[in-house]
Amino acid sequence: MRIKERVVGNVTILELKGNLMGGDETDTFHGKLESLRQDKINQVVLDLGGVALVSSAGVGMLISGAKSMRASDGDLRLANLTERVHNVLVVITQLGAVFKIYETADRAADSYDSE
After folding, report:
1. Domain CATH number, residue 20
2. What is the C-alpha to C-alpha distance for residues 76 and 110, in angstroms, rounded to an integer?
């Protein structure tokens, strides 16, 4: 998995590419979030448009990341889900109640301002 970072206002958008299957991806992802938290960045959007597959370990990775950001008085929002990823996260696991999900990363970033 590769992570590309960009900033929109006070929000950091992480564009993920590859598969979320656990293992090394989990370490990379959590390391990135911890680095953001240390820099006092707690408003994060995950752009999942480049993610083809998500395993149960990948789902756990996302939930853990959300808990981490929320513990820092922030949030982790999801955007740009492919149909396959949407089916795993929303239809099968019903995580639409856990995550705020948006069509685009920019809309997700803008949503922080509207609160």
Report:
1. 3.30.750.24
2. 13
